[in-house]
Structures are given as C-alpha cells and as structure tokens.
C-alpha cells in the first residue's frame, strides 16, 4: 500500500499552553508532507480535515481510503483539493485525465471512486499537495489555474508584507461544500504573511510552506492572541491551525504558502481580526 497516514486528535488552548517545543511540534507540525512514490496524509480531528501530499516518481499512486474514514473509497463522503507544487503531472479521476502544471489546482467532488496521481517526468516529479474535508453533496470536478483565480494584492514593502493572494478553490471560483484553498506569494523583500493576524472560530486551517530557499526558514506563530507560541518550519512542511489559534509567519526570506480551511461556512472574510499591538 502506497498510502500512509497518521491521526491527530484535537486539543484546546488550555492544553496547548502546557506543551513544550517538542510536544507542540508533535501536535501541529506536519514535517514530512512528501516522500517519493508515496501518499502521506495526516487526519486531524479539527473539522475532520486531511492534509498531505503525493509524489509519484517511479510509479502512479492511487488514493485509497484510510481506516479512519470507514469508507469503501476515499471520496465516498469527502471532497478533495489538489495543488501541484512540483513538475508537470496528471490526476486521473474515474478515467478523466487532468494535466496539472506548477501551482495549478484541481477540485474533485464527493462520489468519485478512483483518483490516480502520475508524473510526466521522473526526473522532475509532480508534487501534489492534498487537502480534504467531509462533503454533504457532489460538485463537479474543476481545474483552476492562477489565471482563473480571484487575486488580491495586500501589504507593502515598507511593512515587509507585500503579497499576492491567489484564491483558487473558493466559492467565488468553484463550488465546494466546505473546503477552501489558495496560495499566497510573498514579494522579494517581504517576509510577513497574514499580518495583522486573526482567528476564525467557525473553521480551522492548515498552512503549507514552500519555495523557502535552502538554508532559510519560516517562523510560524500560533496560539491565542494574548499568549502566542512559535514553530520553526522549513521548505515543504505544513502546520495545523486550530479555530482558536492565530496563524501567521515571518521568514528569513520571501516564500510562498498554501492555505486550506474547512468549517461551518464559506465566507472568506469571516474572521476576528487582531491588531498587531494586541499580540502577546
């Protein structure tokens, strides 16, 4: 079997405050998103969200149901978002072939039985970043490129947060049940993302950091606004953000990150913003 998974149970802010650095990383950091010729998944009990990656090198990889789903096939009661952060590849869904280039996305709705990942060139394999959430109805499969995305430019070089937000799998672009995904690209000279910070009690989120130059890192901030913690992260790592937590980061270089979220609604702006001067 080429699908490997682990489960992470949800904890509250009181419990999180008792964790040391190692325990905090064990709870929230997804250190190994990609392994050659494997699908790696983390099933988190925050909104039953799944995050992981598929990197087909020497063979095609089939997305099989994992035990926590108690399902005949992976998308029996789920939807799936895919963003390719590697070389060119293909996603085959029940016989339909979708070509995905670098930073292109694909939404796959509930009820599709077979999802297969492959690379066009083993020397430059595709790296399919995966997010999945429970779904109550089936929506059509849709490929979304940056040209199709809703794009917002925020911040400035003066505040080190000049960035482009590419809203890829959001309800203004594609119909989904609850899954939303997008990609934020930091401009050269800018390092801060999602600042001012916010929380959103009605949904959780996962951040995936990539295009972090070799030898550089991102410091991801989490926790309640009045008592934050941090996790140092490297290229192609992800971090789980509970509903009660802020989610912001600062890198030692500019970088790109993918945000994915699920929960009670599809309102992108449903958030409780916190002023920079409030953070502790």
From TrEMBL:
Catalyzes the isomerization of 5-dehydro-4-deoxy-D-glucuronate to 3-deoxy-D-glycero-2,5-hexodiulosonate. Binds 1 zinc ion per subunit. The lineage of its organism: Bacteria, Pseudomonadati, Bacteroidota, Sphingobacteriia, Sphingobacteriales. This is 4-deoxy-L-threo-5-hexosulose-uronate ketol-isomerase. Pathway: Glycan metabolism; pectin degradation; 2-dehydro-3-deoxy-D-gluconate from pectin: step 4/5. It catalyses: 5-dehydro-4-deoxy-D-glucuronate = 3-deoxy-D-glycero-2,5-hexodiulosonate. The keyword Metal-binding applies. GO terms for molecular function: 4-deoxy-L-threo-5-hexosulose-uronate ketol-isomerase activity; zinc ion binding. InterPro entries: KduI (IPR007045), KduI/IolB_isomerase (IPR021120), KduI_N (IPR027449), RmlC-like_jellyroll (IPR014710), RmlC_Cupin_sf (IPR011051). Belongs to the KduI family. Keywords: Isomerase, Metal-binding, Zinc. GO terms for biological process: D-galacturonate catabolic process; D-glucuronate catabolic process; pectin catabolic process. PANTHER family: 4-DEOXY-L-THREO-5-HEXOSULOSE-URONATE KETOL-ISOMERASE. Zn(2+) binds at residues 198, 200, 205, 247. Pfam families: KduI. It comes from the Bacteria.
């Amino acid at each position: 079997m080429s699908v490997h998974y682990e489960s992470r149970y949800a904890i509250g802010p009181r419990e999180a405050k008792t964790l040391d650095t190692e325990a905090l990383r064990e709870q929230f950091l997804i250190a190994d998103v990609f392994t050659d010729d494997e699908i790696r998944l983390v099933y988190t009990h925050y909104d039953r969200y799944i995050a992981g990656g598929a990197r087909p090198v020497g063979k095609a990889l089939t997305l099989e149901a994992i035990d926590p789903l108690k399902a005949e096939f992976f998308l029996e009661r789920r939807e799936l978002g895919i963003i390719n952060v590697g070389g060119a590849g293909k996603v085959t869904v029940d016989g339909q072939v979708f070509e995905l280039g670098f930073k292109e996305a694909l939404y796959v709705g509930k009820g599709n039985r077979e999802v297969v990942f492959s690379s066009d060139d083993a020397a430059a394999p595709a790296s399919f970043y995966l997010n999945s959430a429970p779904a109550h109805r089936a929506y059509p499969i849709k490929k979304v490129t940056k040209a199709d995305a809703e794009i917002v430019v925020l911040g400035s070089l003066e505040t080190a947060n000049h960035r482009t937000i590419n809203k890829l799998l959001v309800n203004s672009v594609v119909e989904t049940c609850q899954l939303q995904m997008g990609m934020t690209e930091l401009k050269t000279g800018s390092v801060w993302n999602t600042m001012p910070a916010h929380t959103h009690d009605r949904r959780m989120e996962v951040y995936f950091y990539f295009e972090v130059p070799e030898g550089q890192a991102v410091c991801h901030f989490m926790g309640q606004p009045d008592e934050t913690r941090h996790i140092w992260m490297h290229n192609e790592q992800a971090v789980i953000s509970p509903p009660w937590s802020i989610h912001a980061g600062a890198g030692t270089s500019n970088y790109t990150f993918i945000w994915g979220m699920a929960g009670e609604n599809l309102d992108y702006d449903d958030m409780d913003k916190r002023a920079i001067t409030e953070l502790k």
